[in-house]
Amino acid sequence: MPFGTVEQAIRDIKAGRMVIVAGLPERAGAVCYNSAVVVGQKENDLQFTSIDLLGAPEPKVIATHAVPNASEGELRSHGFFFKQYEDKDFGVLGLPVRTSGNFTDSFIQESSSVIFLKVDPTKTFSDLGQLASSNKSVDDNCQVSCVDWYGNSRPIFYRGRIFALLGYELVEGKLQETAIEEIHRIDFTPVTPASL
Predict the structure, then answer these.
(1) More confident residue, 64 or 102
(2) How far apart are CA 64 and CA 40, in angstroms?
(3) Of 162, 92, 158, which Cα lies nearest the Cα of 127?
(4) Is 82 left (phi over 0), alpha (psi -120 to 50) or beta?
(5) 142 burial class (0-12, 13-18, 19+ CB within 10 angstroms)?
(6) Which is it for the CA torsion 58, 119, 68, 148, positive or negative?
(7) In this predicted model, what pLDDT tens digit does every residue of 107-139 receive, in sequence order?
(8) Which residues pair with 136 in a beta bridge?
(9) What are the tens digits of pLDDT across the range 128-179?
(10) CB-based burial label for 141 (10 Å; 0-12, 13-18, 19+)
(11) Between β-strands 81-85 and 90-98, what pairing exists: parallel, antiparallel or unpaired?
(12) Quick one: three-class SS letters along 61-98?
């Protein structure tokens, strides 16, 4: 169900309506257990708001984290991912974002970065940084990779590892205490055969 603000999302939760938005620059997604994260624009900032769904007597905002001069980098599919680390008592949220330039002009032509936030047991956020694309623009008519297929950027949590798929690049990050650090990058841009 589309919503325009965090306040509208909370009204929808209170009314018992489902608040899952796909394909729009604002959406809600489950974080863990009895909480949710609502992601949306507030002026030039991208805001992440955690909501206690079982708040007495009704759902309530727990915390908000703003990413200045940013917008969601994913409009065509659900680019929001979360990994709960049971052994570390926190989770990591990943979301494609755009932090510069005109969002609508660059959406089709460039890959987003993926921002990572640490979500602690109280459902507050701390910025871990991002894994960024090299912003190479490749037009292969969707033969190998295409924004139409998967939105062009995606955080991936796989067997204890963290990746960001960024167009023709797969970037691996290592989770440090307070940041994510890039450790590997693979560029699988197709090579154009030389003209004969």
Answers:
(1) 64
(2) 11
(3) 92
(4) beta
(5) exposed
(6) negative
(7) 445 557 899 999 888 889 999 999 998 866 666
(8) none
(9) 999 998 866 666 666 665 555 555 788 999 999 999 988 888 999 999 989 9
(10) exposed
(11) antiparallel
(12) EEEEEEECCCEECCCCCCCCEEEEEHHHCEEEEEEEEE
Q: Measuring CA to CA, which residue among 77, 71, 97, 81 is closest to residue 151?
A: 77
If pLDDT is split at 50, 70 and 90, which confidence band does 90 have? confident
In the block, tokens 């680390």 appear at 85
Q: Say if CB 102 and CB 108 are below 8 A apart.
A: no
For the range 99-107, what are the long-range contacts, defined as Cβ-Cβ under 8 Å and sequence gap of 24 or more?
99/67, 99/69, 99/70, 99/130, 100/69, 103/71, 103/73, 107/73, 107/75, 107/147
Domain ranges of the chain: 6-187
pTM of the model: 0.77
Q: Is the peptide bond before 57 cis (omega within 30 degrees of 0)?
A: yes
Q: What's the one-letter identity of residue 120?
A: D
Tell me the C-alpha distance between 153 and 161, whole Å. 17
Contact between 181 and 192 (Cβ < 8 Å): no
Say how far apart CA 186 and CA 181 lie, in whole Å.
Answer: 15
Contact 140, 149 (CB under 8 A): no
